[in-house]
Structures are given as C-alpha cells and as structure tokens.
Design goal:
Layout: H1 10-20, E1 35-41, E2 45-50, E3 54-59, E4 69-73, E5 83-88, E6 92-97, E7 105-110, H2 113-119, E8 127-132, E9 138-143, E10 150-152, E11 162-164, E12 174-178
Antiparallel strand pairs: 1-4, 1-12, 2-3, 4-5, 5-6, 5-8, 6-7, 8-9, 9-12, 10-11
Length: 180
C-alpha cells in the first residue's frame, strides 16, 4: 500500500540520528547536514526567531516566520541519554547558562552547530538530553549542564523560550516533525 510515510517517535528519530552520525556512519568527503525539525508546543505555537537572539513560541497564523531547528548528536556523552546539540543552522546555537545568583536561562549565541559536533567534547552547556516524554508524539529537552531544567515555552504567546523545571506553568513537551 503506497502512501504517507509512518511518523517515527522521537526516540526512533534519535536512534537513526545517532546511527547515521556515529564515527563511521558517513563515508563521504562532504560533511553531513544537521537534521532539521519543526517543533511546536501543546498550544500549537511554533518556534520563530525574534531578532537575532530570541526564539519564541508563536501561533502559526501570526506574522512571524516559523524557524526550523538543527539537531546533531553529542557523541562525547552517553548515547543512551540521546545527548544533542540544537541550533539555528548555520550561525546560532542554543546554550544554557546561569548568571551569578540568577535562574538558569536559555541563550542563543553565535556559533556553528557543526563545530560543536566535530569537537567531540562534552560541551555540557550546549547539550540537551532528549527523550520521548508523555506520549510517542512529544519530546522534551533537559539541559545537560543543569539537570532538572528543560527547554520550555511560556503559557503566553510570543514569549521567549526558556528553561523551566517540571511541574510549573511552562510547557516542557513539544511535538515534532522531521523536515529533511
């Protein structure tokens, strides 16, 4: 029966990503491209870029342009934890920081996601542990640098994505669709 390809769970997508990007998975001279994903929260708000340094969750009917997210494995960490780098290819990466005396925060900083991947170093502040969470159709992203803190969207539209702990008002579960 021909038809639409069956959607994979996040764990299946990550298993394929790690298999394809493991130290011998590609046998060509060219670097493989990061996987691109579309993400949206439980309120049907998609990731969009505001300026150069803020990723927000916006309704699909707003004036903002949906932003696809690049994903590459962090092979320096335990594969079973599905450690990944996330960014906006090719010039921006996601980083988790905690200003002195402040709350853990998500930053978008200038950087090349391929360089993070090629470094083969732990780079915990740039790493998220990803997993299917809640249902096969959703996933979550926990900061490797700050365990217990997850990528999150606000209850309000057009607010920057941040990092939150489970149990708060923020959304930490995201739907996904692979683009390439």
């Amino acid at each position: 029966m021909a038809g639409k390809a069956e959607k994979k769970t996040w764990d299946e997508e990550m298993k394929n990503l790690f298999k394809d990007f493991d130290q011998g998975g590609f046998h060509t001279a060219a670097d493989p491209d990061p996987r691109l994903f579309r993400f949206w929260d439980i309120h049907q708000r998609f990731f969009s870029l505001m300026g150069d340094d803020k990723l927000v969750a916006s309704p699909n009917d707003s004036n903002s342009t949906e932003q696809f997210i690049s994903v590459l494995p962090n092979n320096a960490l335990d594969v079973r934890k599905q450690a990944i780098f996330m960014g906006i290819h090719p010039k921006t990466v996601m980083n988790c920081v905690q200003p002195e005396g402040g709350q853990v925060q998500l930053q978008l900083i200038s950087g090349n996601i391929m360089q993070l991947y090629k470094n083969r170093e732990e780079l915990l502040s740039f790493t998220f542990y990803s997993k299917t969470d809640g249902s096969p159709d959703t996933c979550s992203f926990e900061s490797a640098q700050f365990p217990g803190w997850f990528l999150s969207s606000s209850v309000e539209s057009n607010k920057p994505l941040g990092l939150s702990q489970k149990g708060g008002p923020e959304n930490i579960l995201f739907h996904f669709q692979r683009i390439n």
